[in-house]
Amino acid sequence: MPHTPDVCPSVNVFEHRLAAGLEGRRAASLYRQRLTLDSPQGPVVRLKGRDFLNFCSNDYLGLASHPQLMASMRAGVERYGVGSGASHLVCGHSTAHRELEEALADFTGRPRALLFGSGFAANTGTLSALLQRGDTVLQDRLNHASLLDGGLHSGARLQRFAHNDLAALERKLEQVPAAALVVVDGVFSMDGDVAPLAALAQLTRQRQAWLMVDDAHGFGVLGKRGIGSTEAAGLGVGDVPVLMATLGKALGTAGAFVAGSEDLIEFLLQEARNYVYSTAMPSAVAVAGKTALQLLHSESWRRSYVLELVARFRRGAGQLGLPLLDVGGPIQPLLVGDAGRALALSQNLKRRGVLAGAIRPPTVPANTSRLRITFSAAHSESQVDALLAALEACWSTDV
Ligand SMILES: Cc1ncc(COP(=O)(O)O)c(C=O)c1O
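Above: query sequence and pyridoxal-5'-phosphate SMILES. Below: predicted holo structure tokens.
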């Protein structure tokens, strides 16, 4: 007897799931769409023949199309070609990768660093390799999705604690019998605030736990030398044994790294599946990464200048009565609440020639949709003023 399916054979379960999922997103104003740039990344970008003021990239230092970085990547292509051709452990690892890893270890003051193709891969790879069943991983509620995914994937017990709430973390740590890893963003990507790293380091040390910091948004921006949120908090490898940071944001290139002890890095090199079974980043990207590190030093004015622009924006936004969060870095969210209204504001700004992303659930918690406005050292003061004028024009009309 042929098997009779329970559902009508003409309605495939996947087709139904896709259609319902997409429709659900549209109906809840949660549908995401890509912008397609026809220009380099920068303070002004071109879309379909029109120029827009860009306040939504993570190119905080304005390095993504810096002439020296572009020349350096071109030279990297001349020397190494385009593709790396294999994973690092087969034959994709080059002198450029080695030199960048050494430069990153040196810059962060850590024994060793290991490159990954992306920050997402670095986080999921590191957490899955480091943690075992029976361990506990404690994560701030606002941690990046890649940290949460890595924790879930590892098989360890995943516990989330209230955002930046040390007392809540301490209560949870008291209950943990086995190895515990506390994981936080150094700078929270959607709120722009900084984790209380010094206190977290003290607490984890007291509890024999380890601390991992994802400094995707602090690296290159914070600290006297731009080492990031750990430098700003005066912490070294003894305090924060696992440091991850990305190269595709303030450093203007692509990829990421983990820096820590000799054993941590050698263990990840052997065990992190995202490292072992993935093609190495193009060597030319690593060549450019090293140049970006040099620019952090030779053009250190970029760190202070972007903060001056932020201060200018905050003064103006305060005068307009816009709902600023109490954060001083290049990520300046304007809290809106409702997803539909955040989207309408973003679209209204776009009609006026300004790009500012509407960040909605599930990227942020329900009812905390926002415009995520970001600044770059490539912006000018008059561009910041133009942003303020556009916000003034559209904020109340969309209320
Ligand atoms: C906090 C944080 N961690 C990790 C990542 C992932 O980095 P990448 O874009 O290099 O994959 C991001 C980027 O979006 C991020 O904001």
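The CA atoms of residues 105 and 112 lie 5 Å apart.
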